Amino acid sequence: MSNPRLLLVHAHPDDESSQSAATIARYVDAGAQVTLVTCTLGERGEILVPDWEHFTEAELGQHRIDELKAAMDCMGLTDQVFLGGVGRYHDTGMDRAPDGSVIVPAEVPDNAFWNADLLEAANFLVEIIRSRRPHVLSTYNAIGGYGHPDHIMAHRVAMYAVTLAAAPSHAPELGEPWQVQRVVWSTHNTAMWQKAYPIAREKFPDLFGGEERDPDSFGPAVDYIEAVVPIEGYFDVYRRALAAHPSQVRIDDPFWQFHAITQQLPEAGEAYVFGCGQPFPPSDKPHTDLFVGLDLD
Ligand SMILES: [Zn+2]
Question: Beta-strand (E) ranges in 129-288?
């Protein structure tokens, strides 16, 4: 039996740290082959460091490459690829409709990831899938978790690439066909968010700008969560990896303090729902291992 191989597809630098830091570090430590694909440089992220506010989008993108490298060092991750090469796809950015929902901005760069040719973008990933041969691939659900256009696109590209990579008739020049056995979609750990919310609301009255949130809106119904990779032993890695992205994350602001509380509760961890392929075994949910029940050849 060979070591597990995991491939994660994230939209921007910092998504790997906020959603998958413990997963990445835990599997790296266990001897798994872990590969991160980042689809954009995150050039349109909000700049939170006052001294960096003058950065152009291109300058921010270059800076975020360094932030990502620092986060990877925290997690022990060594294999990272920008989809199509550095800067091939530009962060699309996001806007808010009057009802608060996330929408595509009225103006986007020519090479915005949202406008990527789906087949071309998927083929970049097909080549990576066929060379790394992951047993499990992790990305987002069809609405990108919260609706960011680049997260939706990451989902589309990843799901299409998984199908194409397995087909012997598709682009043989991109490598030998490879069937990813299981696709998982990372998600909020609903039960932990629900438990942490009253604690955080009490401590941080400014959480969510002081607005009340419906705890049922924090994530999928608990029954849908198939796996929770425990954060135990990796909380410090998660905080350091997140803090490695200071342009985007103020680690001590109410939201990230709330996030930290969700990760300090008993049974806390990074949550996943089933995407496609080999289902998780029906008993013992949530599983703590993304590879449970798979044949690791
Ligand atoms: Zn993102």
Answer: 136-139, 182-187, 225-230, 269-277
**Spacing, Cα 146 to ligand 1 middle (Å):** 10
pLDDT at 297: 76
Q: Which residues are close to ligand 1, an ion, with C-beta < 5 A?
A: 11-12, 15
Show the tokens assigned to 151.
């997260």
DSSP assignment, residue 177? -
- Summarised one tens digit per residue, pLDDT across range 256-280 is 999 999 999 999 999 999 999 999 9
CA of 10 from ligand 1 middle (Å) equals 7
Q: What's at 58, amino acid-wise?
A: A
- Contact indicator for 7, 137 with CB cutoff of 8 Å: yes
Domain ranges across the chain: 5-277
Q: What is the pLDDT of residue 49?
A: 86
For residues 131 and 127, give the distance between their C-alpha atoms in angstroms, rounded to a whole number: 6
Q: Which amino acid is at 222?
A: V
What whole-number distance in Å separates Cα of residue 222 and Cα of residue 245?
30
Q: Does domain 5-277 have CATH number 3.40.50.10320?
A: yes
